[in-house]
Amino acid sequence: MTARANPVGILRAGRLPPSLVMGGIVVALLVALALLGPWIAPYPFDQFNVRARFSPPDAQHWFGTDEFGRDVLSRVLVGARYSLLIGFGASALSLVLGVPLGLVAAYRRDVGGELIMRAVDVMISVPPILLGLLILAVTPPDIWKTILAVGIVYVPIMTRITRSVALGLLAEDFVQAARARGESAFYILFGEILPNAWPPIIVETSLRVTFAILLGSALSFLGLGAQPPMSEWGLMIAQSRPFIEQAPWIGLAPGIVLCILLVSVNLVGEGLREALDPRFAERGSP
Amino acid sequence: MIAYAIRRLLYVVIVVWIMSVLIFAITQALPGNVAYAILGQFATDRQIAELELLLGLKDPWYVQYWRWFSRLLHGDFGQSIIMQRPAGPLVLEAFGRSAILAGIALTLVAISGIWLGTHSATHRGTLSDRVLTLAQYFFIAVPEFFWAILAIILFSVWLGWLPATGYTPIGDSGFGRWLVHLILPVATLVTGLIAHVSRLTRSSMLETLRSPYVLMARAKGLPERLVLRRHALPNALLPTITVLAVDVGILIGGIVVVETVFAYPGLGRLLIFAIEHHDLPLLQAGMMVVTTVYALANLVADLLYAWINPRIRYGGRVA
Amino acid sequence: MTAAPILAVEGLSVSYATARGRLAALDDVSFAIPRGRSLGLVGESGSGKSTVILALLGLLGAGARTGARSAVFMGGDLLGKEAPNRRGDRIGVVFQDPGAVLNPALTVGLQVAEPLMVHRGLARGAALERAAALLGEVGIHRPAEMARAYPHQLSGGMKQRALIAMALSCEPDLLLLDEPTTALDVTVEAQILDLLQAERERRGLSILFVSHNLGIVERLCDELAVLYAGRIVEQGPTAAIFRQPRHPYTKGLLGALPRLDRDRALRLVPIPGGLPDLTRPPPGCNFEARCPFAVAGCAAPQALQPQPDTVRVRCHRSRELEGKAWPVESASPAQARRAAGEPILEADRLSKTFPLGGILSRLRFEGGLPRLGPPAAVRAVDAVSIAVRSGQVLGVVGESGSGKSTLARLVLRLLEADGGALSYRKRPVARVPDRGFRRHAQIVFQNPESSLNPRKRVSQILARPLALFGVAGGRDLAARIDRLLELVRLPASYRDRYPHQLSGGEKQRVSIARAMASEPEVLVCDEAVSALDVSVQAAILNLFADLRDELGVAYLFISHDISVIAHLADRVAVMYGGALVEEGALTEVLRPPYHPYTEALLSAVPMVGSRERAAQRVRLPAEAAAPGAGCRFAPRCPRRIGTICDAVPPPAHEPAPGHRIACHLPLDQLAALAPALGGMESSHPPG
């Protein structure tokens, strides 16, 4: 039996898994910080203050200052938007491109569908970071290209997952019943299959957000994503390397916040899976 | 089984070939770059045009591609622009050093991941299981480069136990020093992956333990030890093989980052170097090697899976 | 003096922890199995019958609480601490689904040998040898070879034999069987039952046989216990219970069975309602809510009362209800024989072949050189011609692999045929049929769980075909939906429900309503009742009969169960291996002359009241070589003449107009065959 979606209504507030709630709150908080960043930051993120450089965390600079005397807290706050932008932007892109491709590949078992899947197989054969490197290596990098590159990197896996979910659903009898009514392919895909397919797709997309944030900040760390003076967290950590001994907080602050973001996004993903996967809902006797 | 192996091999060849086209196409997208990169930013337009002609950069791209690819097949990986040396030996030497890192890391990941996952599954609900599960969440979510920084801060700066960067070949200062330089990079590589593999092994094991054939094994009165070892484990490990293959890809990504942080002279660092300095021949050569290695690793995993899984190894009906 | 029973259980109770509370799966179950005798445990889904076996073996999960006043096996406490050693050693188990229960990663021989290694201390080599011998004893050909094979390489029947060998390996005293033949074809099932009976006689085994199939239980079991919702409601010698059921549930079960020997004009007993909520088990009779004989006194706790014939019943009214059958509404007046109308849907030599594997899988190595072999293919349907006539039911019966489901899909153009023609009302049906055809030819599927879109309410599911075919729209829609629900006997309040809020039978009703929404002339029913419990099946069969009588819908009714077909169909087509081997009016097909396969099929069906037939059973060999160009049944046919059967397609005999048999045997020989049903089919009115 295929793991089918929980019917509407299971996500009632009282029955939300704790991981979803906890993770969701933290993520919401960080999103709020990202949106409000520039306004609530105590200092402009690029304001030099050479006299106060390398000051450890204190009352005026909660996270200390970096090699140019810039306030690390402000930079972290402003930098939140980049990580979130890459994470959600790239995932959304992979969703928008990958899901229709997957649906088509599942429905059309002919040359067209096969071609899509072979292309997907080839792209999956390349380690994600290399694909990203390849795409970013040839033109001057910036953050939008990073989002594009990371999004493209994850299209194949969204396609594959959508296809396998859709294939499972296509085998169900209610789809056959629809064919027996002479329904069009469009109706079958969007009227019968998609409503049942979106829960596993949502779960997978939330996992993609975690990986997209990771990949995006790794690329920025390597110098191929966001560029100075942007205070993207991966970039900040990269730039803190020469000063690790004398001022570790420059790298630790963005790193810890990045980890908090990643853990909460992960929790949200896990929580969604718990809430939406029918197998979890039916715990009980053998 | 033989037919299956041949089919997969053919498939690898096709994938590598397509990747070569892609790598070439993407890197040669702007031919102006190559000549520009060689001559530097003060070159005149005429010098650039001359060099382009000399290097055959004005030819149609498929001619250029074929030239590059056929040289590749003969073992000529081109000349590194920056280092002014044949790219081939450079890449292969760097690859060797990366392979050591990767090999050690993968072995550690496989052994610890499987052991931890199995232990978690068979001791489900106990304190150790809960602690491990919690730890997994965190370990998976922390980016590699941050682990590296943390490791450096902890072990190099504060405790001063381990060197932060660098590499000494075995010949120069002996096995001990060589090993010591490897510890931090390997440790950084394995943390996320061990969590990943153990998590998957745990859930695969739990599912296997709920399966009808395990019930049957118990119904036959077999001791639990035997049920675990002979009935549960082989089936539970099948998905783990698949995951390890995927993890090689993640490992490759991790290696690029880790080598950069620890200044380890491997292929990852070489690739970044090539990108930063627009050393296209070096970049192309490096990418080809990595892609081929990854494709071969996947092939090995698939064949291993097919070998262990009787459904694939011994095809259809006999009676 | 009777010897001590080999297994005596008193007051076995099992409860599970679930999200909704503690579920009482078994309540005070007591039974005893004398040495060398067999006890049948009968019940539908949710009765707890499988739980009994798991409880006896101590294999219920951690969330289950098991308790018994006493559970004595061969003088020792079964549920105590040293119980695990009995498993596999003194007690053998055979579970339902051999494919799931055999470890796919280990050879069959090793799995059969394991109990020997663990319980008898045999070395691996010796154990494997003994295992191969055991496989031979249970009727597996080339046992040494099979022992080295993996489970996926064996057919269902072979796997089940291997399981039996595994259970018998240490020569146990007690054999527990949980629906061992449910997943098998009827002819294979008959072989397995023969095997079980033979082994039982040979080894003096005691048997506990759990099943929902009353026919099998009657054949194999001396004693019977009927389980309902975790409690035993009737217990005693099998013959006595079948002769005179005393508990209303037993009466209902027997009345719900479609039987080849019963007058099909009678409606089946549809036990209304559903199982009680076992998290809050009723203190009184747990069957009260569904019982037509319920009175005020039923709310009091019921105990098992002894009756004549050493039967015990849990019903305080059993004496006064003696001999009273379950009240059934009389059949609707439109039962009068309908004249066969003109053919609506005609299939002419439809064929379908499925290729196996892609181009690369044809790659073979012969003599060291790579070679492209011929494409492997399965001929699922082979030049089948049938006609569905207006107002008539055409039943198609066959086992797995016969091609009947493929035929259903071909006839509706859900699958593209490779050859042959299809016409609707004499006009050819295009490859992509138009709306008119779709509207008038609909389908009901087997599995209620996957028939309905889980994300749509019943009203949405029914509204779609109404809107699509323009049957009703706008304000009319709601009224139409209500009428459809009424048609399938569902309350109007169900329109807002989601599928997961419906029971299996209710889901199937909604599927039928959906199919009927466009007012089709032909309804294809692909095993539409096979996944339902007996009582639910009875209700749906009644519904089908009503729809046929009231609305004049024609059916193409597909089933592997000949009893179900016999209850509904006017004409029957028998399929084997993709080919039509016999076709004719129901009564003609059930009597000789018949095709040898029909003969084997009919003689294999386990029927209540047919214990004596066992001796005359036609036994088919296990799966043999693939068929050649001739008769598809030839490799297994017990009446095979010679190579002509393999090479030449059989001619069609026509013993009566409209009755065709495809066989090389001459007609008079076919007519002289002994009736496989032992004269039981005579109660069907001719026509």
The biggest chain-chain interface is:
A-B, 42 and 45 residues
Query: Quick check: average pLDDT of chain B?
Result: 83
Average pLDDT number of chain A: 82
Described by its quaternary structure, the protein is heterotrimer
Helical region count of chain A?
A: 10
Tell me about the largest β-sheet of chain A: none
How much of the sequence lies in strands of chain B comes to under 5%
Q: Give the low-confidence spans of chain B.
A: none
Radius of gyration based on Cα positions of chain B: 24 Å
Q: Approximately what portion of the residues of chain A adopt beta-strand conformation?
A: under 5%
* Terminal residue distance of chain B: 19 Å
Give the ordered list of helices and strands of chain B: HHHHHHHHHHHHH
In short:
Chain A contains 10 helices and no strands. Chain A has 286 residues and is mainly alpha-helical. The two termini of chain A are 16 Å apart.
Give a verbal description of the structure.
The complex is a heterotrimer of chains A (286), B (319) and C (687). By secondary structure, chain A is mainly alpha-helical. Chain A has helices at residues 18-40, 72-107, 111-124, 128-137, 143-170, 173-180, 185-221, 233-239, 249-276, 278-281. Chain A contains ten helices and no strands. In chain A, helix 3 packs across helix 5, helix 4 packs across helix 5 (143-170) and helix 7 runs antiparallel to helix 9 (249-276). The longest helix of chain A is centred in the last third of the chain and has 37 residues, at 185-221. Helix content of chain B is 80%, strand content 0%. Chain C is α/β, with parallel strands linked by helices and 687 residues long. In chain C, the strands form five sheets. Chain C has an eight-stranded mixed β-sheet with strand order 7-8-9-3-10-11-13-12, sandwiched between helices. Chain C has an eight-stranded mixed β-sheet with strand order 21-22-23-18-24-25-27-26, sandwiched between helices. The radius of gyration of chain C is 27 Å and the shape is globular. Classes of the chains: A mainly alpha (286), B mainly alpha (319), C alpha/beta (687). Chain A binds chain B through residues 121-122, 125-130, 133-135, 137-139, 210, 214-215, 217-218, 221-224, 234, 237-238, 240-241, 244-245, 248, 251-252, 255, 258-259, 262-263, 265-267, 270, and chain B through 15, 18-19, 22-23, 26-27, 29-30, 33, 137-138, 140-146, 149-150, 152-153, 157, 164, 248-250, 252-253, 256-257, 260-261, 271-272, 275-276, 283, 287, 290-291, 294-295, 298.
